[in-house]
Amino acid sequence: MSEKEYHIPVMLKETLQGLVLNPDGIYVDVTFGGGGHSRGILDLLSKKGKLIAFDQDQDACQNIFEDDRFLFVQSNFCYLKNFLRYHGISLVDGILADLGVSSHHFDESERGFSFRLDGELDMRMNRKTELTAATVLNTYTEEQLADVFYHYGELSNARKIAATIVKARDREPFQKILPFVEMMKRFFPRQKEKKGLACVFQALRIEVNHELEALQEFLQQTPDVLKPGGRLAVLTYHSLEDRMVKNFMKTGNFEGILNKDFFGNIIAPFKPISGKAITPQLSEIEKNPRARSAKLRIAELIDKTN
Predict the structure, then answer these.
(1) What is the pLDDT of residue 101?
(2) Which CATH number is 31's domain given?
(3) With 80 as the cut, is the pLDDT of residue 289 above it?
(4) How far is residue 179's CA from residue 204's CA, in Å, rounded to a whole number?
(5) Are 8 and 80 in contact (CB under 8 A)?
(6) Portion of the chain with pLDDT greater than 70, in percent
(7) SS3 call for 255
(8) Which H or E element spans position 211?
(9) 31, 77 Cβ separation under 8 angstroms
């Protein structure tokens, strides 16, 4: 499968410019996917350079390429530190995370990520895990469902949605996408239907894959595996993950609380490279509509020896 068919890398040029500063260095792409960003990194590395790529999805394995400088790890990025240690790597020069769902996942109906295609209500990134979207819909309590849709989908009518789901599943458990979508449409006006459905599916996907917990665990490990002056580049696509990344890069915690020393200096492991997130050019959005919501944040690990 070609990269174009699997996933078009977002803000490739901007990401590589902010990330790859040492051609002889060791870099990590924790969201390999179609391999677009990884291939771009390798193109900038010398023969001494090295790239380690992570992806928990079995489908990503078909995109692995042969290169002596490349190592693939089939695992969730929340195990970053463990696997680097396993492969004898203590510190790296840069880490990239593209948190977007690959085009491939939306286009494969059996994966259950898209509300446009019928298929099983699955949504698992790692199909070896047991929790599916159908399991969430059929077994969670009304309160649990309301929390999922409110916190992960930021839906103001989360309680009404949850109550309707609980009543409907008593008649027939949820298995397929389209019947569920038809039921969800009643909660959104026609002009906001797609956005509303996207929020519902986003909430379920985040819950099924424990995305925010994994992101938090990953980010907390990055200061321990980056060299002083090393770069962390993260592409986000919705406000929940972007807020976490922004706060962590700025303050070293996820609440965004600024801690200062006696002299008034901010105590944080990273220094953001720019005050605002980098966003795609209009020309890129026209070619790749999924880039529309993307934000690129890059930070540098502070060298405490200086």
Answers:
(1) 77
(2) 3.40.50.150
(3) yes
(4) 16
(5) no
(6) 93
(7) coil
(8) helix 211-225
(9) yes
CB 133 within 8 A of CB 122: yes
pLDDT at 3 over 50: no
Tokens for 95, please give them: 């880490």
DSSP 287: H
For the question of whether the overall pTM of this predicted structure is more than 0.70, the answer is yes
Provide, for the chain, the percentages of residues in helix, strand and coil under a 3-state DSSP scheme, each rounded to the nearest 5. Answer: 50, 15, 35
Q: Which two tokens stand for residue 203?
A: 């909430």
Quick one: which of 62, 69, 184, 98 has its CA closest to 133?
184
Count of all residues that appear for the chain in the document: 306
Q: Which domain holds residue 25?
A: 3-103+211-301
pLDDT tens per residue across span 172-207: 999 999 999 999 999 999 999 999 999 999 999 999
Closest CA to 134 of 179, 101, 100: 179
The dihedrals phi and psi of 43, each to the nearest 5 degrees, come to -65, -25
Q: Nearest to residue 299, comparing CAs of 211, 209, 236?
A: 236
Angle at 48 between CA 44 and CA 52, to 5 degrees: 70
Domain boundary among 209, 240, 273: 209
Query: Is 306 part of any domain?
Result: no
